[in-house]
Inverse folding.
């Protein structure tokens, strides 16, 4: 069959679910993944023809996409900060907004260490709710001398995160903990705590795309309407205990709750709180210093 015919079938079969540009993206990512073909192949060779064996994985992928399974889960991988990460239904698919949070941490560490002649090896970082391990692996890869720790409640997520650290040759120490369990005891203190915890309220479910709602882990996304900041409260309490004095907290936040999250940190005596917008112009990140 001609590759162009398969592209038309993708558009026909997925047209009711995704916009045209998104279907193009899904098709080109599929041919790149399964056949190693670049997206311009059809421009150079409009008559490019596939064997039955080459068609088969493209149709298999199409069938999963029709069920609205996110492409990253279908292919079992995604990219974050130019690194490859395995993903499955136990972990959130890393988002570009979270890359911005990681850049913020990296930029601050780089400028601080060059200003005061500190070694990055003196710096201990913890990621709370690590999922695929995208945050700690990206931090450890970019600044290999950091001492990086990460925790999650989910053993299945931690399994994926450990595999991602190993595959990317990043040194990260993983812990299985429930951040909402206030009896939690650690023998460690950190210079930096970073987190992208669950923050989508149940009432916001209607605004969320179907493929996210149906396939990404509930536990990674949603919080009760009546306690939307439950994780931020727990993290603030945890950070009051386990962050060193003058240590920094970096949080991804619910865009509709920027002021409330800032007020919560103020109530916990954090200082120099800075609220930042993401590339889409939404309040998305907070940084705060422990007194
Ligand atoms: C929004 S996801 C973030 C995943 C990853 N850090 C990222 O940015 O893609 C939140 C993560 O918090 C974890 N989580 C949920 N409840 C938790 C709890 N009580 N204690 C620790 N981790 C929890 C979930 O398993 C999930 O991996």
């Amino acid at each position: 069959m001609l590759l162009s015919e398969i592209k038309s079938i993708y558009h026909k079969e997925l047209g009711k679910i995704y916009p045209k540009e998104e279907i193009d993206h899904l098709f080109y990512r599929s041919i790149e993944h399964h056949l190693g073909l670049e997206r311009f192949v059809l421009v150079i060779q409009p008559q490019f023809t596939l064997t039955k064996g080459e068609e088969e994985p493209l149709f298999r992928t199409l069938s999963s996409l029709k069920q609205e399974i996110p492409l990253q889960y279908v292919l079992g991988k995604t990219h974050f900060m130019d690194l490859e990460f395995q993903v499955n239904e136990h972990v959130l698919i890393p988002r570009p907004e979270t890359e911005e949070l990681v850049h913020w941490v990296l930029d601050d560490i780089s400028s601080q260490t060059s200003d005061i002649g500190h070694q990055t090896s003196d710096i201990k970082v913890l990621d709370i709710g690590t999922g695929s391990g995208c945050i700690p692996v990206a931090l450890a890869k970019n600044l290999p001398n950091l001492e990086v720790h990460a925790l999650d409640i989910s053993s299945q997520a931690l399994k994926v995160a450990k595999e991602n650290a190993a595959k990317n040759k990043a040194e990260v120490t993983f812990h299985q903990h429930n951040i909402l369990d206030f009896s939690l005891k650690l023998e460690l203190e950190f210079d930096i705590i970073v987190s992208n915890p669950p923050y989508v309220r149940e009432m916001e479910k209607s605004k969320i795309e179907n493929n996210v709602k149906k396939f990404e882990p509930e536990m990674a996304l949603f919080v009760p309407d009546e306690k939307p900041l439950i994780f931020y409260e727990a993290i603030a309490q945890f950070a009051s205990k386990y962050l060193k004095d003058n240590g920094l907290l970096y949080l991804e936040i619910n865009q509709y709750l920027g002021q409330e999250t800032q007020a919560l940190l103020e109530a916990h005596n954090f200082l120099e709180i800075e609220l930042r917008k993401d590339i889409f112009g939404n309040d998305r990140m907070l940084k705060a210093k422990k007194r």
About this structure: The chain has two domains: 3-67, 78-290.
